[in-house]
Amino acid sequence: MATKLWQKNYTLDSMMESFTVRKDYILDEDLVLSDIIGSASQAKGLVKMGILTEEEGKNILEGLDKIAKLRLDNDFPIERSDEDCHTAIEMFLTKEYGDTGKKIHTGRSRNDQVQTALRIYMREAALKISAASLSFASSLIEFAKKNEDVPMPGRTHMQIAMPSSVALWAMSFAEEIIEEAGMMMSFYSVLDQSPLGSAASYGTTLPTDREYLAQLMGFSKVQNNVLYANNCRGKFEAMFLDHAGYIALTISKLAQDLMLFTLPEFGYFSLPRELCTGSSIMPQKKNPDGLELARSRTSLIVSAAARVKDMIKSLPSGYNRDFQDTKEPLMEGVNATLELVRIMDLMTQKLEVYPENLIKACTPELYATDKVMDSVLNGGNFRDSYKNVGLNLDKVEKDADPVASMKRRTVIGSAGNLRIEVAESYLKDIEAKVAERVEFLESIYTNLVPSVKEVIL
User: Fold this and answer.
1) How many angstroms separate the Cα of 156 from the Cα of each of 159, 175, 240, 241, 368?
2) For this structure, is 86 an active site residue?
3) Which regions of the chain carry the CATH code 1.20.200.10?
């Protein structure tokens, strides 16, 4: 059985071990590489303080690189008896380098160790989700460009409302997703502060150079107050999940629209059969299960934030073991968001449009408001014109041209003046920020642990 980081002169009851460890040793497989970056910085910090010799520091860094390679080959198992990846890593180093491995935790608590690993994990997750979201937005933009001249009934209360276009509909989601990727990257700046060196919330008497550690890991600053560095655990996770939740909520609305518009009764769009499942009893069925699951996965992501908030809402200052249970909803939310964005990107790329059905759906009542506005432009007042058209709907043009009506709408952002280039410019700005951060972290990781370099995106 592995020795625990807190091991004393007794053995933990097996039921209590199971209760306190729960899923951590499984979840932590996704934290191994993040912890390695934190531990490599810790080792260099200990060399700087003279607690590790240069040779010992070199051995630790080589050992961490070995672990990284094993993890990338799915060959670094974490056992329940390890409790978590942090113990497994230290035990590996101790087995390889003896007393040198036992020094790695000097001046560090598992509190700031876990916080640091989670901060690195969330920092990378923010980049991954932003990049995937921008790719999805690009697919929506391409879809909009391809269908810029295809009319579509605009709806309010799910009823026929005013002339619109497929491009306007698609760009509404593209612009929203771009904004939300931008919000995620803004939150990156909150994540971009190092808790390492705060120990168990109160620092230590060692001359730890926290700024040096932060720079080694690529953080822009130190999270100054050592107690705040601990107290924000859970809150940062919830904030991250809130941002992920906004992306998911946008996708849920898009999925709901697509479920309606791909119905045979609408026939605006269709999904290829390879993106649909079938029925176990009805041979004719082609079910949009991906769209249905997009709605439920949105609930999973949004509820993950609520779960974390509920866990931390009444905690006193300092470390509390309750924080451990915030890890599962965080990782579940990260993975679900990435999967959701990527599958919706694929469905958007494969979506087929039926212009003839969309034109047919543009029935006469769609042009009622246009008739009111034409009356106003010819000198009538709005209220009387509105009333007159409303009382004579049977006289609204039966042969109106939906494409012409769509193109008459030249107000900024409307069907005749989408200004797609504005959205593209904003998208490229955020893409550049993501790329810059990825390139920077790759250089940081290469200097610390070369084998970790290629796993950011």
Assistant:
1) 5, 20, 32, 30, 14
2) no
3) 110-360+419-446
